[in-house]
Design brief:
This protein is of the alpha/beta class and 327 residues long. Helix content is 45%, strand content 11%. The C terminus is likely disordered.
Length: 327
């Protein structure tokens, strides 16, 4: 979509400076409450009475805030239910900042280069979905409504230069490099190993040390399941005689999903595996089989970094220092 200078849908031009807030979301667990949004807006307007705010979302979003937006009409422009997807490119291109949960607005902001303040929680993998625009930050809590309005308001004010900036332990900062996408997370919820594993898999971080025996056994199970998948696919590619390949892989992938659900660290690898498979496009069955085989091999190599070839806990260190596998 082209980013043009005007939006035909609107009777008035947008302010020369404004912050865009996307208050909706595809799932309720990704949506900050209306009470939080109202408190956040009040804090921002008390700090800067001339601040202009543009609110985007669907017809059903923020219904409890309708009267509040009318009361604050000199500062807040509600475009809820009034925009097309193509309009968001214009709105976000010229906004100082995009604030919201995991949503289409965050993804568009990555294309327009608009800094984002992403409100994230455990139901979303921000290192997969973004934000991916320079200068962006993430506020993360297990549940999205655990993020306070004061924290969001402070980050907005610091990102727009109205308050001094300082490092908060629960603020995740995006930084990009020529080698990939990186996030700096001072405090990682859950175990340090899980966050180090995420950095290792997605951002080329250092190989973390695995010391937890429960996670070790979960990784062993992923290794064994991936080897089963490799064997079934390899046999099918060689002779193409079996009509049960899909059935076999379905059972294997149910097992892989179960391991990921039972162990958070294993869940990081399972999520990565699933995202990689999504990259496959519809095409000849032979090509699909080879691509699927490559993804199973990659998963197998990943877990072998930590459990090697030995299946019994105690016969191998929690990770393999000397393996130099290129994934």
């Amino acid at each position: 979509w082209r980013i043009s200078g005007t939006i035909p849908l609107y009777e008035r031009d947008l302010p020369s400076q404004y912050i865009a807030f996307h208050i909706g979301g595809s799932q309720k667990e990704k949506v900050w409450s209306s009470a939080h949004w109202k408190e956040c807006f009040d804090l921002l307007l008390n700090k800067n009475p001339s601040q202009k705010i543009v609110v985007i979302g669907g017809h059903e979003d923020g219904s409890e805030l309708k009267d509040y937006f009318i009361e604050k009409k000199n500062n807040i422009i509600s475009l809820l239910g009034k925009t097309r997807v193509s309009d968001l490119f214009y709105i976000l291109k010229w906004s100082q900042l995009c604030v919201g949960g995991d949503s289409v607005a965050m993804h568009i902001a990555a294309l327009t280069g608009t800094p984002c303040l992403n409100l994230s929680c455990q139901s979303v993998n921000f290192w997969e979905t973004g934000p991916h625009s320079k200068g962006s930050r993430v506020l993360w809590k297990p549940l999205i409504n655990d993020i306070s309005a004061e924290r969001v308001a402070h980050e907005v004010l610091s990102m727009t230069g109205l308050e001094s900036d300082f490092v908060n332990s629960d603020t995740i900062r995006f930084r990009s490099s020529q080698d990939g996408v990186y996030y700096d997370w001072v405090f990682a919820a859950g175990t340090a190993f899980e966050w180090e594993l995420i950095q290792f898999v997605y951002s080329g971080g250092s190989l973390p040390t695995l010391e937890d025996p429960i996670t070790f056994n979960a990784f062993v199970r992923l290794r064994d399941l991936s080897e089963m998948g490799i064997q079934y696919i390899s046999n099918w590619i060689e002779d193409r005689k079996s009509d049960l390949l899909g059935e076999h892989l379905g059972a294997i992938e149910l097992g892989i999903e179960s391991v990921g659900q039972m162990n958070p660290a294993a869940g990081v690898l399972v999520a990565w595996f699933n995202v990689e498979k999504i990259r496959m496009s519809p095409q000849d069955i032979g090509i699909l089989a080879q691509q699927t085989l490559d993804y199973y091999k990659s998963l197998n190599m990943l877990v072998r970094y930590f459990v090697g070839d030995m299946k019994a806990l105690g016969t191998e260190r929690g990770y393999c220092e000397n393996q130099k596998m290129d994934i």
